[in-house]
Design a protein that fits this description.
single chain; 3 domains; ten-stranded parallel beta sheet; eight-stranded mixed beta sheet; elongated
């Protein structure tokens, strides 16, 4: 007597977890990391508009200053830091909304992010000298790589998807810079050796009506990051002049450098983790941070056949690839994927026509693919760790930061009772993520 078994796989998403953020890492939309600077957040005038929270790490007695008829706004969040509220000064009509509150100092949320050339997203380092791109008219397209400098004075310079390492300067002065799936990495002249601490390395300047429009990669080591600076690079990222803008389309991370808007320039990012922030020269100078409203999701195959076996035997097979995608863009993120099953039935689902979940075993196996800065841990690393699905089990867990994804190919094994009758048995294995 032979039994044929099939399994139907379904999935469900249970909302994102809000409880797994590391207590010491900055979770704000705008993180100003300098621990001691006067005016680490300095608006004189201009505006800083953030969806979410603003955290200024400086313990200086004047950690922040808003001067002139302008404001710093955190919509739906808080403004604060260890020097607040007294150390968040105003003058000449400046204001904060909401009012600053005292909050503890935090750590760099991207401290564990691998930098170039070590990170997997970094381009291969060529022999010196590195190329120079000086675009002056018309249209030009370049590819990821290591460059001494990149500039666009007119026309449109298009970047193919990937990482662009720059060792001296990236300057958009009157021209346009366009790139989808792009990360700009600001290094130093010593590259591939890291910047000495501290030193002014490559800067990013958009001026004189220049327009930079970027979108960050959605996968890989730099997922969600549009601009990254070497951690010791003190050079600024600056937008200056009416009609000049930087649309980051991702996060900016410059742990030792300033993010600045001057004389009417505007810049926007989905997150900013920077040393200091300054707007100046005009009330229309503006820095905006609006996080990506991505989701946590899971995808699984629609069905799998486990084969056939006689009563008293076992049958099993790989179920196909399961992928969790976390596009929430959180500084510190965590998720847990769980797996459960129903009984498997044939015919009229009598006791002899039922294989209970205690006879259904599962193991996730190792991750087959990961993207982003993540640590992914299988619930059951191999067959020796398999677990019966008589109750819900952890299939995979993950901690990290920024956008990320993890895939695995689980296996299900069914032990067929000796009293089972012949038939095609079907059941459901459900993967969920939260």
């Amino acid at each position: 007597m032979v039994l044929a078994l099939t399994s139907a796989l379904t999935w469900v998403v249970i909302g994102p977890s809000d409880t797994a953020r590391a207590a010491t890492a900055c979770t704000a939309s705008l993180c100003v990391l300098n621990p001691s600077a006067e005016n680490a957040l300095y608006v004189h005038p201009g505006s800083v508009q953030v969806t979410g929270s603003i955290l200024v790490n400086s313990t200086n007695s004047q950690a922040a200053l808003v001067s002139g008829a302008t404001s710093v706004t955190a919509t739906g969040g808080t403004i604060g830091g260890p020097a607040a509220p007294a150390g968040f000064a105003t003058s000449a009509g400046g204001s904060y909304s909401p009012a600053p509150t005292n909050q503890p100092a935090v750590t760099d949320p991207y401290a564990a992010l691998a930098q170039c050339p070590a990170a997997a997203a970094c381009p291969t380092t060529p022999s010196l000298p590195y190329p120079v791109v000086n675009h002056v008219t018309g249209n030009q397209t370049i590819s990821p790589g290591v460059y001494t400098s990149i500039s666009s004075l007119a026309g449109t310079l298009t970047l193919n998807p990937g990482t662009y390492v720059v060792t001296t300067a990236l300057t958009i002065s009157g021209g346009k810079l366009v790139g989808n799936g792009v990360t700009i990495y600001l290094a130093c002249l010593t590259y591939p050796v890291a910047c000495a601490a501290p030193i002014g390395g490559a800067s990013f300047t958009d001026q004189t009506g220049g327009k930079s429009t970027l979108s960050a990669p959605t996968t890989g080591a730099f997922a969600g990051l549009s601009i990254i600076a070497d951690r010791n690079n003190t050079a600024p990222v600056t937008v200056s002049g009416n009609g000049s803008w930087i649309t980051g389309g991702g996060a900016i991370y410059t742990a030792a450098g300033k993010l600045a808007a001057a004389s009417g320039g505007k810049a926007s990012f989905t997150r900013a983790v920077v040393d200091t922030v300054e707007t100046s020269g005009s009330n229309s100078s503006q820095l905006t941070v609006i996080p990506t409203t991505g989701t946590l999701s899971i995808s699984v195959p629609s069905a799998a056949s486990l084969g056939s076996a006689a009563p008293g035997g076992t049958v099993g097979a790989a179920l196909g690839s399961v992928t969790v995608s976390d596009q929430r863009g959180l500084a510190t993120t965590t998720w847990t994927a769980t797996v459960s099953a129903t009984n498997f039935h044939t015919g009229g689902a009598t006791s002899a026509e039922t294989i209970t979940t205690s006879n259904v075993s599962y193991w996730s196996g190792p991750a087959t693919n990961t993207n982003g800065t993540v640590t992914a841990t299988p619930g059951q690393a191999d067959a020796s760790a398999k677990q019966a699905l008589g109750s819900s089990r952890t299939a995979f867990g993950c901690t990290g930061n920024g956008n990320n994804s993890t895939s695995w190919s689980p296996t299900a094994v069914i032990t067929i009772p000796a009293a089972a009758v012949a038939g095609t048995y079907t059941g459901t294995v459900t993967h969920s993520v939260a």
